[in-house]
Amino acid sequence: MLAPVLIFVYARPEHTKQTIESLSSNYLASETDLFIFSDAPKNEKSIEMVKLVRDYIDTIPDKKIFRSVKIIKSEVNKGLANSIISGVSEIVKLNGQVIVLEDDLITSPDFLNYMNDALKFYENDKKIWSISAYTFDLEFPDKYKSEIYLSYRACSWGWATWKDRWDTVDWKVTDYKTFKKDKRLRDKFNRGGRDMSGMLDAQIAGKIDSWAIRWCYSQFKSDMFTVYPRVSRVRNIGLDGSGTHSGISTRYDTTLNKSTKKCEFDHPELNDIILRLFKDRFGTRFEYFIIWNKILIKKMLRI
């Protein structure tokens, strides 16, 4: 059995359509169970767009593209964080593993192959927290031969994990008071990006509502890694100002994999050069506050 795919959609019909269509072109689409979670409108502005999204996803089961399609429509607005936490918790309990997408992610044709192969390869490796399908275009060291690399930070743009990892997350971050005052811990958390401690502060202060920073924090506490591909299997099309959870940016543009060759997984060591290149993609703390405050305002307004 392949891992089920969960897609979380809201009020972007054109982005949702592109996400579904690219997934339907995957080599393993016909063998994959698809769960689509549709959040309810938060305000009157979003009613019509949510309706258009729901009208579209209602047509998917009729096309017989996937092994099965189940659509879950919320009657109340949960917001992205609660939608993902509750949706993943429900499905991972039944299946033991999940692959997760949002409504603005284009996947390569081998996305499902990459994800399922990685889930199988690393399932019993207790140093691996999650699998990312997205990656930056990085300049890898000449001597680095692996087709994947490790990072201290999880990714929310096309990811996968297992039930035993998901179940350990403390969504309330009950030890935050200790973390907040400990500079050593804060610096260590920021190994995955200079923005991480500040984002957790913003989450606890109620300035943002992010499941991902809490997911990353639990990874940090567990001292585990996320597997990234050298060549991305996901491209984000949502950083165009169109959505609740995005601003306008080309900062994270990447090249989508076109090769039909299967990814070869192994157990590489952490590479300091790659870790630095990865971390630098998140900029300085000053850049973080300029860029992310614009994005987070849109998140809070949910327009």
UniProtKB/TrEMBL annotation:
Chief subcellular location: Golgi
Pfam families the record matches: GNT-I
Cofactor(s), names only, from the UniProt record: Mn(2+)
Subcellular location: Golgi apparatus membrane
Family matches, as SUPFAM superfamilies: Nucleotide-diphospho-sugar transferases
Molecular-function GO terms, alphabetical: acetylglucosaminyltransferase activity; metal ion binding
Membrane topology: Single-pass type II membrane protein
Transmembrane spans: none
Name of this chain's protein: Sugar transferase
Recorded metabolic or biological pathway in which this protein acts: Protein modification; protein glycosylation
UniProt entry keywords in alphabetical sequence: Glycosyltransferase, Golgi apparatus, Manganese, Membrane, Metal-binding, Signal-anchor, Transferase, Transmembrane, Transmembrane helix
